[in-house]
Design goal:
Length: 272
């Protein structure tokens, strides 16, 4: 059972630490535009992730890899303008931090300055040590991401559950502890066994946010377009659809077409 929810006027990285300490679960959803972000923020969601999943959801790419830093800043700026309470975290896209720690810092600074975001998110563990050090030393809050890391999908070759084998599970735990020691304020664990995620959440002091990582973590994140049913081809076990907007919107659009063609719309009350 979660603790009684504390009222926060504005969620900060420190708020998330407090939530974990007091047993209050953290809610997190994605957004890429002003309108969706405003609805999510007003609903009381704690964290809005401007994910590089925009590459899939908004642009129709097969992976998250094609989206650029400029595009992420555009999406993040739109979300920040809508956010009055939620903490806004922005993915640093593929190719903007892995190869050069100085480039990593420049990318993070651009996101923070040009979008007004509150934090950035990066994928990986000890292999991104240099990039992480520069970003955190510059005073930029960082959320980590372990398990299934979509920016490395071509290396994995599959979207199946990660860290089922002992060696990979041990590395994940070591990487999580490393990210905490470097100063990350939270970590997303994606598509790993629930028992492993529970172990990580118990061993770390920073919040662990799960997506396909079971219920024994400190919070949950989903892609908004998936959970409201705007996308309909995606059916992972961890996804709960709270709405079926794909069918509802399709029906509305079809009815609109019929009404226009039959001159039912606009009627006399809908004109000047």
């Amino acid at each position: 059972m979660s603790a009684i929810k504390k009222e926060y006027k504005r969620i900060t990285t420190n708020s998330l630490i407090e939530m974990k300490k007091h047993g209050e679960k953290i809610s997190m959803l994605t957004a890429y535009d002003y309108t969706m972000a405003k609805i999510i923020d007003n609903a009381g969601v704690d964290v809005i992730l401007v994910g590089d999943s925009a590459s899939n959801v908004m642009a129709g790419h097969e992976t998250t890899l094609p989206i650029t830093l400029d595009q992420m800043i555009y999406h993040a700026s739109s979300v920040v303008r809508a956010s009055k309470r939620s903490l806004v975290v922005v993915d640093i896209p593929f190719g903007s931090y892995q190869s050069d720690s100085k480039e990593a810092l420049r990318s993070a600074i651009r996101i923070m300055k040009e979008s007004g975001a509150h934090a950035v998110k990066v994928e990986g563990g000890i292999e991104i040590d240099n990039a992480l050090t520069r970003i955190i030393n510059a005073g930029i809050p960082v959320m980590g991401h372990l398990g299934l890391t979509p920016q490395s999908i071509y290396q994995f070759g599959t979207y199946t559950v990660r860290a089922k084998e002992e060696a990979e599970a041990k590395k994940l735990i070591d990487d999580a502890k490393f990210l905490e020691s470097k100063g990350c304020f939270a970590i997303v664990l994606e598509k790993i066994p629930a028992k492993l995620a529970k172990k990580v959440a118990e061993q770390l002091n920073i919040p662990i946010i799960g997506i396909g990582a079971g219920s024994h973590v400190d919070g949950q994140v989903l892609v908004t377009h998936d959970m409201v049913g705007m996308t309909h081809e995606f059916h992972p076990r961890f996804l709960r659809r709270y709405l079926n907007l794909y069918d509802d919107m399709s029906n509305a659009f079809e009815q609109y077409c019929k009404d226009v063609k039959s001159v039912d719309f606009p009627n006399e009350k809908e004109q000047y």
